[in-house]
Amino acid sequence: MNGPESPPEYPSFRLDGKVALITGGTRGIGRAIAEASVHAGAAVAVVARKQDELDETEHALSGLGGRVITIAGSTGDPDLIERAVATCVEELGSLDVLVNNAATNPVFGSTIDVEPRAVRKILEVNLEGPLLLIQASWRAWMQEHGGVIVNVVSVGGLVPAPFIGMYNVSKAALAHLTKQLALELAPGVRVNAIAPGLVKTHMAKALVDLGEEQIAARTPMRRIGAPVDIAGAALFLASDASSWMTGDVIVIDGGARLA
To answer: Are 73 and 47 in contact (CB under 8 A)?
Structure first.
């Protein structure tokens, strides 16, 4: 007669011993993900454009007990991408989790009127930048050691919406890139995405200013999202708790699609 079975090992949301590189990590969703990663035990490399915001972020995250480095520059700059990945691996010892959060949207209005210069800027930062970061991370660490990639897309990349059409197109492309690379990089590297609804961030200010109370009233959860609402999903995707998950897009929108 066989003895009692061993209890299952339940997955953990911890990131102890892991290193996460997070773009756009000084404010909004990226900052919340960086803070959650530190709380979960990860060392963190934060990439953003403004040095003063990076300095504040490094001080705040270090105060949480985490090992933190910061790298200044735009993810639309290929040289910055190579430097950021190399710095992360050299100073923190690995690159286990890449969070592509940085994005831009320099236009607000009809897509039919968007200028070619704005189109190029949006695609450069929102699509080409994440791809180049994934490629650099693959070459520098993940090809040999494995890893996890989390792309922050948008519900606007899944369903058309007014005012930010080209931004939404770039996020739709990033969502598809997520699935394409999940297929190509499995099983060693998992690639998933989060599609937030309207979250109260600096980038979303123009949309929130259209009428926060009215928008919230049309949402089943009766509020606009906060950055911390997205951080939990990012932590899940980065951790071993999602170890059998790749090529998926998690929507977090307070139920807005139901309305």
So the answer is: yes
